[in-house]
Amino acid sequence: MKIDLTETNSSKINSALVQARRDIGTPAIGMVLTLVIVTDEENAYDALKSANDASHEHPSRIIVVIKRVSRSPRSRRDARLDAEVRVGADAGTGETVVLRLHGELVDHAQSVVLPLLLPDAPVVVWWPEGAPADLAGDPLGALGQRRIADTYAAEDPLAALGARAAAYAPGDTDLSWTRITPWRSMLAAALDQQPVKVTSATVEGEEDNPSCELLAMWLADRLGAPVRRTTSTGPGLTSVRLESKDGSIVLGRADGALATLCMPGQPDRSVALKRRDTAELLAEELRRLDPDNTYESALKFGVTRLSPSEPAQTQAPAPAEPEAPAAPEAKPRASRKAAAK
């Protein structure tokens, strides 16, 4: 069921939700949280589709906040709220409210969202793109116990990581961190099987991929060993290599689906390590609403590594072999050419 409301308010939206539930006989007590999605028209469809898919595991009230850009001074002064209420098959396993804010109301979105939150239920705020630098300091972010961003969607992902670390608050998280959960689990299991002392590590993946940076920070933080970051053509993360005096542990994934785990003294084995879609990542994040201390530790460990003022700590580069000067080599080559003539 869909109900369109033009030039409305929060009270009328709540009444429409109650009436729609009565009409189709759907109670609200089965919903476990409120998911607030802050996005734009361009990304609203994909974000809502992912949220609806995730709602099969986490029935919730989904509130989509779309801030419409006003092009003229007159329209920027006129505050207007349009809404679309979806209940039943059109809203996954919960219910959905799509809010379109116009004019001055764009700067006061929290006043519209607050009356629509489920009572006595946790609130999660998700920015599919365009997340503020300070998630907890944002008026909408302040409503949530959990705040989800995605630095992969940022224009400069590495700078966004630094901003996340500087403004981190308990409850903040990042889908770029969620993407490496299978990698972290696989590497931890490999070290459980072979408890070696890792002397160095290498993380290889796409350039400007924050998941690669976060994995490198996590390894450096947990292992206390230098970690080198190298680039590849992808897709995403392609390999992690852990060096020790007993040999190398290598987890490589060239095709984005199937990885190979190589360990000293054991045959190579194939492991499923496919790239997951946004709905799976979101569902994983909604399973926990407490602060992620491991993410916090890895993120803050990387602050100095992202700082250009301390290049020695930046991603722990491997020592480079000395190169022969170019000038002395040019003369012998020239003399050999002359001798050949």
Automatic annotation (TrEMBL):
Transmembrane segments: none annotated. Residues 302-341 are annotated as: Disordered. Residues 51-165 form the Glucose-6-phosphate dehydrogenase assembly protein OpcA N-terminal domain. Residues 170-299 form the Glucose-6-phosphate dehydrogenase assembly protein OpcA C-terminal domain. Residues 308-329 have a biased composition (Low complexity). Coiled coil: none annotated. Pfam families: OpcA_G6PD_assem, OpcA_G6PD_C. PANTHER family: OXPP CYCLE PROTEIN OPCA-RELATED. This is Glucose-6-phosphate dehydrogenase assembly protein OpcA.
